[in-house]
Amino acid sequence: MNKKFLVAGGDLRFVKLAEYLAEKGCFVYTLGFDSGIVLPSKIHTLKSLMSLNERADYMILPLPVSNDGLNVNMPYSGNTLPVTQLCSVLKENGVAFGGRFSDKIIKMFEDRKIETVDYSVREEFSVLNAEATAEGAVQVAMEETAFTLSGQKILIIGMGRIAKLLVHILSGFNAEVTIAARKYSDLAWAEVYGCKNIHISELKKNLGNYSIIFNTVPAVILDRENLEELDKGCLVIDLASKPGGVDFDTAASLGIRAVWLLSLPGKVAPLTAGETIGKTIFNILEERGEADD
Amino acid sequence: MNKKFLVAGGDLRFVKLAEYLAEKGCFVYTLGFDSGIVLPSKIHTLKSLMSLNERADYMILPLPVSNDGLNVNMPYSGNTLPVTQLCSVLKENGVAFGGRFSDKIIKMFEDRKIETVDYSVREEFSVLNAEATAEGAVQVAMEETAFTLSGQKILIIGMGRIAKLLVHILSGFNAEVTIAARKYSDLAWAEVYGCKNIHISELKKNLGNYSIIFNTVPAVILDRENLEELDKGCLVIDLASKPGGVDFDTAASLGIRAVWLLSLPGKVAPLTAGETIGKTIFNILEERGEADD
Amino acid sequence: MNKKFLVAGGDLRFVKLAEYLAEKGCFVYTLGFDSGIVLPSKIHTLKSLMSLNERADYMILPLPVSNDGLNVNMPYSGNTLPVTQLCSVLKENGVAFGGRFSDKIIKMFEDRKIETVDYSVREEFSVLNAEATAEGAVQVAMEETAFTLSGQKILIIGMGRIAKLLVHILSGFNAEVTIAARKYSDLAWAEVYGCKNIHISELKKNLGNYSIIFNTVPAVILDRENLEELDKGCLVIDLASKPGGVDFDTAASLGIRAVWLLSLPGKVAPLTAGETIGKTIFNILEERGEADD
Amino acid sequence: MNKKFLVAGGDLRFVKLAEYLAEKGCFVYTLGFDSGIVLPSKIHTLKSLMSLNERADYMILPLPVSNDGLNVNMPYSGNTLPVTQLCSVLKENGVAFGGRFSDKIIKMFEDRKIETVDYSVREEFSVLNAEATAEGAVQVAMEETAFTLSGQKILIIGMGRIAKLLVHILSGFNAEVTIAARKYSDLAWAEVYGCKNIHISELKKNLGNYSIIFNTVPAVILDRENLEELDKGCLVIDLASKPGGVDFDTAASLGIRAVWLLSLPGKVAPLTAGETIGKTIFNILEERGEADD
Fold first, then answer.
1. A174 → closest Cβ in C150, C151, C194
2. Contact A65, A100 (CB under 8 A)
3. Which residues in C lie closer than 8 A to residue A171 (C-beta atoms)?
4. What confidence tens digit (pLDDT) does each residue in D174-198 have?
5. Long-range contacts of C218-226 (CB under 8 A, 24+ apart)
6. Which chains lie within 8 Å of chain D at 3 or more CB pairs, if any?
7. D146 touches A at CB < 8 Å
């Protein structure tokens, strides 16, 4: 694709993203990788926005776009880049892609007639990241236990994307997986994917049977009442976004190991996660009819 | 569960359903199995509606409830049973369960203050039946080919419930499965479930690569233009509901074997399909708070 | 490969084998396909041995080579071909490949200084055929039951090649598979492949738990004493070579459905089975250093 | 089982083994866990051999029995225990179980009429440990890479126990696995287990295609000539016993990450590995007819 991109800020995922775009034939500028990162020579690394001598078709901002609401999220740079400075880098009709724009930043771009598109809300983005999350969770389960996954009784709470992919991965390990869910259709999916299943209303009385529990539901299901039912050797891995699904203080007081793993894709598989962003953006361009010219 | 059911009409699925209900502790009358079917003694087989001496809590009607809009669908009976005759068999607040009620029959029951509930629209019903459909489709693929599934290049069009379960089953056969779909999230699911994937817009130019094609999309995708691309030895199995996904006349004229498989659960796995209806009805009762008394 | 083959006799597998050889660049004569079979034009179909005007490098005989000890096994021909007539069709140092030569036929070839090689005793031949056997067995299990394989409790007796591949295939169907075997290492394989397992000495008391039993051990394990333990609805599929593993008369008298499936690869997947013979012969030639010239 | 065991020396596996024996009803003494390990109260922990007031039926020695040829391998003890001191702890006809006895130690026991049995040479021991090894290898592959296993092209050299279990585990990760092996039957197993496969003679020219390579063959296959073919980002995981399968110095000089993982079961899954020793010893006792009394 014969288009010009500016990748501004971000972590290792965005380095890989820049490479991905370049491999697809795009012309890629990057900004914000001045701290110990060497990019391939086909990427045009800018020292500062001043060095950009032309306007880009698209700008790609990190995930999240900004941590403080003002400056671009640039962990691999010693410099600071206010988002407002990016308002004049795009050609007319250019698009600013980003992950989790704040309302304020969206409005700021809108005021400059710049369209913003959030790649992180796309369904395919979530599916592909769920694979990375599930792999990362399994890796931690292996690291944190002194037994094989083979033969373990494992509980997964929830039957969404991440849970389905945990089931898929764990099938190769011969673990006996049980799904706890509220919706009967989720229990049906558990059944046809070869899992035991229990309705969430039956959870408490079954909790003592498992050596590993993965939670994927963002509600504090593993509260004191439920945590007290667990086997003391049980490992709890919480994959739910805030507020999480575990009362961690109580778990600690009961001597139960519980870990809360957030943002796994960028941590355990930044290269894959960067490709995922690239694929998602290409899909968006395809749908907009801007991919092939 | 201490409730009285009348199972009126239906095929082998409903024989199994009656057994399922009886095993759960329900009192079960059946009507419409007088032609060569012997039911277990714990089932109370009625010769006619006249023999019913009490009112039931629930009535279960077949799928579909009626083929002609007037009489209950009773393939295992030599008799005829107008749906209207069922209006006085239930206790007050009883429920008439059925599959695909016509509007007219719903109205008829409503006029008698009888609530109708269609078990066939429940999501868990569809998921569990999708497993039976996928198994039946794989069985036919094995019967209709003179090669092993192992090593075959197989295309599945669509990535809904049935497609996902085909992928799951075929994973044990080492087939190389490709998904063709329109939505990018479906292609992402294909990827994380280990399949190759192509956007539907790229379908035509890839069609010559497969020895078996399963279609799950109810739109005539395999029209003349596409059928002409197929390898002559390719087997096409259409699992889509009407209008189906294949121009069968053209397929025949091109010498391509194409089969349209409808209503597989009741055909290849009536016992499982009967249990599925039973599970679904119990879930409904659970949600209504009528399950445990 | 620039060699001349004569494929003499055999069933559909040998038609496919002839095609396979031709696709690899070999020059292929066939003999014995005069009854309703049309071979691709690149195959040189002989009406009789008289039509062969040159000597071949290799001759491929069927599996088994002969049914009566005298004539070539030629089910697709109305003619008769005594094996002795094949003694002068090969060049010096040519090889006669065949499946299950009788001692008498081996001696007959030896007396003419013709080397015989049995492709059917090769390990890779057995492994590849085990896949076809396992698929065929699963197909029959699906055809003979009115329930899905998903959710069934299935017993496999033995843990050899066919059993291992049954386990692999059934994993896609979510069946709960138990292995019964005598060797502890086989039970260990069952465990690491995700199966329940019982020592054969514990078989009898567990036999009532299964809806499908596959036997792969060639010894009558399912005798009256054991058959009496089975659930009446249980389906028994015997895959063992003679003497088989089931007392079929007793099974019939007890009302238990039992089927003995022999020679499945040639029946359910003749095309794959033909390729398997071709691959095996190429491996042999590779090992002999005769493959690449 | 109503027998008395002395577990002398060993690492965490032998702590778990002691628990396993106690759970089976055996009376268990341990010796050599005085350094920071607390055993369950049902285990009879000896401070020294002097505290043993009766003779045991069986003695279980570590794996390996001794590191220096003289003293028992006791990593969790500050004390030293010469193997010779164990010659009077068993009843008549008692058995000394151990892993990798040296010839000298075997002779020492024989001279005292004590039978030695090496549990580590049992096939089921190797199979169960292969699962732990394969899991550990996959864990390291995940830790050492910045991409998901899903979608990777992975090469496994060899098709023995560990390789087969790697294939099984990786199937849940959607990796594209290729097997390189010398025996055609191993390539056939690769095929029926859904892997691509290449004969070892074709290895070199394919080596550039993979992002992860697992070697399971104890011969230096990845020498300079082959290492030079690898992609620079490729991760090499060597699971072969000595001499290993990789020229590590050359790999380092070429900038290729290569890790040699030995004795994984005891490291990544000591609890499972301890159970494996227990299961193996019970199998041996079962075969000797000493299990049930």
1. C194
2. yes
3. 171, 194
4. 999 999 999 999 999 999 999 999 9
5. C218/C242, C218/C243, C218/C244, C218/C245, C219/C243, C219/C245, C220/C244, C220/C245, C220/C246, C220/C247, C221/C157, C221/C245, C221/C246, C222/C157, C222/C246, C222/C247, C222/C251, C222/C258, C223/C247, C223/C250, C224/C250
6. A, B, C
7. yes
> Cα(C253)–Cα(B185) distance, rounded to whole angstroms?
55
Name residue A222's beta-bridge partners. A246
Count how many residues are written for chain A: 293
Check CB contact under 8 Å for C127 and D192.
yes
pLDDT by position in tens, chain B (length 293):
789 999 999 999 999 999 999 999 999 999 999 877 888 889 999 999 999 999 999 999 999 999 999 999 999 999 999 999 999 999 999 999 999 999 999 999 999 999 999 999 999 999 999 999 999 999 999 999 999 999 999 999 999 999 999 999 999 999 999 999 999 999 999 999 999 999 999 999 999 999 999 999 999 999 999 999 999 999 999 999 999 999 999 999 999 999 999 999 999 999 999 999 999 999 999 999 998 75
Question: In angstroms, what is the C-alpha Rg of chain D?
Answer: 22
ipTM above 0.90, yes or no: yes
* Residue found under tokens 């026991």: D109
Residue B147 is given by DSSP the state S
Joined together, the tokens standing for residue A193 give: 């994917």
Among B150, B191, B192, beta carbon nearest to D192: B150
Residue A49 CB coordination number (10 Å): 18
Taking CB atoms and an 8 Å cutoff, what residues of chain A touch B287?
184
CB pair distance less than 8 Å for A135 and D150? yes
Give the separation between CA C106 and CA C113, rounded to whole angstroms: 10
Amino acid type, C33? F
Beta strands in C75-192 (DSSP E): 90-98, 115-118, 153-157, 176-181
3-state secondary structure of A169: helix
Coil, helix or strand at residue D30 = strand
| Residue entry with tokens 């069946």 | C175
Other CB atoms within a 10 A radius of the CB of residue A270 amount to 21
State how far residue B165 is from chain C, nearest Cα, in angstroms. 9
Measure in Å the smallest separation between the Cα of C212 and chain B Cα atoms. Answer: 15
List of chains touching B (3+ CB pairs within 8 A)? A, C, D
Å between C232 CA and nearest CA of chain B: 14
Indicate yes or no: CB of B174 within 8 angstroms of CB of D192. yes
Q: Closest Cα of chain C to D279: distance in Å?
A: 10
Nearest to A128 by CA among B197, B53, C115, C240: B197
- Residues of chain D positioned with their CB less than 8 A from the CB of B171: 171, 194
Q: Name the token pair of C201.
A: 């000495």
Tell me the CA end-to-end span of chain B in Å, nearest whole number.
Answer: 7
Q: Which residues pair with D5 in a beta bridge?
A: D28, D58
Q: Is residue B6 classed as helix, strand or coil in its secondary structure?
A: strand
Cα–Cα distance for residue pair A71/A80, rounded to 1 Å = 7
Distance in angstroms (rounded) separating the CA atoms of residues A206 and A203: 5
Nearest to C168 among B145, B172, B271 (CB): B172
From the centroid of its chain, how far is CA A44? 27
d(CA B250, CA B253): 5
Q: How far does Cα B204 stand from its chain's mean position?
A: 30
Indicate the pTM of the whole model.
0.96
Residues B95, B42 contacting (CB under 8 angstroms) = no
Question: Which residues, numbered 245 to 284 in chain B, qualify as contacts with chain C under a Cβ-Cβ cut-off of 8 Å?
Answer: 268-272
Cα–Cα–Cα angle for C216, C217, C218, rounded to 5 degrees: 120
Q: Is B213 on the interface with A (CB under 8 A)?
A: no
